[in-house]
């Protein structure tokens, strides 16, 4: 089969596309013919070696996938060749990734694809959708009618957070980088503030009628606890999903007196069971049109290195000027 | 009735003891003849005005109480004169406190006293016991066999945390100030480290066999996240219950990647229902001898100011040289 792969961590050019042996579905696995994959920042960090992980050699990068089952391995009885499936979490923790024509996936990581939703949409939604769902519901316990603030509301995870919070009946305020993104987020049903221009604490206070935030999901790399802890309502929930190098100051007094909760997670440490619970909501919401995933760029498998270069430029170089996911269409 | 009271916040000398009108049990309340009360640091902060709260004037300080029901107010049918009760949470959020011969208490804040346990032990255990129970079980979700670290393990709340964690089947490491306190905590069943002498991260690593801590309850005023976040196991739970002025640096990366949880609370913001759930365990554990509360000093009601002065000196001035609670015996 054709697959993107690296033999050592490095820049985008370390990605080669060529022939690798077809994988075989082992016990409890399914063999999937992949039609769409999508990139996430974690793919860049693993490829570059900045997030060290045990990697097979050669290593196929990529977490997200959608496609069609080609064979079920021994012991797999509830899924059959021809079934459409989607998922994420490949290419992590020693597993091979998804930028390949075929992948062998543990049954528990493959979710039934809903009719009427394209493989491209499923692949583009996978990791960001599961991350957003875990943050909103497992970690923040978000309920209908609550006030939530989402910095970076048009980012990969951010746009999912906004869509899912609205789908859950919450009242959403998000921050964005410019007026164009503000109009986009408003079209999804969110209120917006613009970084570096608006007085965010004053806008949060007005948004919540002085009550404070029930939830805050920080998608960006420098959480500002001195601003956000005072902006929370009693028993508010704060969630961190980024910021590996950040070491901000933390105001202990207002945090504990208000009974706040701070949690964080890396999506790839969630169990298969936790992620499958998210996946069933995601499949339903995509089918109902309640969430949609903007696509910023499409590349064929042969241009996997170019796809990485495009995402890297947009994530690190262009300070988030691109809205939407980078998709790799395969086969 | 005789009662301690203040007419303005200030030093211990602002507490006078004299005659105030007897309270009356209103709808849903019980009138309790108090036999024992106990002091907590929050009493000092409210009296001094450093934790501002709306106060009646004159204000009777004191949170904890144990005694005997003298009358049940309208609508109270499940408790009767002569029943022994205990509780905490009076003298907070606008309520009158417990350094008085009689108090009117909402039924939901009065718990049945277990036979064979003295009123002094119940009063001394009330606020610290409920605080420790909330921290260990509601907030940290502590389970049998887990590893927990408790700085300040012979303090008021600290000694309760140690006793309850052991009662729950957890493995307990606590920090103490000197060898005498270490022997005391070891006699309760805890491992110990001594502040400013032992290498605490190395001791935590050895204690947990390299796994890291499942729970850390910080009772002291300067939490050190840079030391403690790396010492936690994946999905570990960190709880703050002190440190109003602390603003330490917070390492975001290891916190979120390990999926840690940080929560905090001020005990007086817990609901009556949450506290009653703690009280039933506390009554049972006291009756079974699984927890015990050291008494550092006993004062009659007429010496309420002296009791405050003693606790203030021990808490702030003597850097925790005194182990145990300060009890006020009444009537």
SSE topology:
The structure is a homodimer of 331-residue chains.
Chain A: E1 2-5, E2 16-19, E3 29-38, H1 41-48, E4 65-72, E5 84-87, E6 102-106, E7 111-112, H2 119-139, E8 147-150, H3 156-167, E9 171-176, H4 179-188, E10 191-194, H5 200-207, E11 213-218, H6 225-231, E12 232-240, H7 252-257, E13 261-264, H8 272-288, E14 295-300, H9 304-317, E15 325-329
Parallel strand pairs in A: 8-9, 8-11, 9-10, 11-12, 12-13, 14-15
Antiparallel strand pairs in A: 1-2, 3-4, 3-6, 3-15, 4-5, 5-7
Task: State the main characteristics.
homodimer, 331 residues, alpha/beta, Quinone Oxidoreductase, Chain A, domain 1
Please give a quick description of this structure.
The structure is a homodimer of 331-residue chains. Chain A is α/β, with parallel strands linked by helices and 331 residues long.
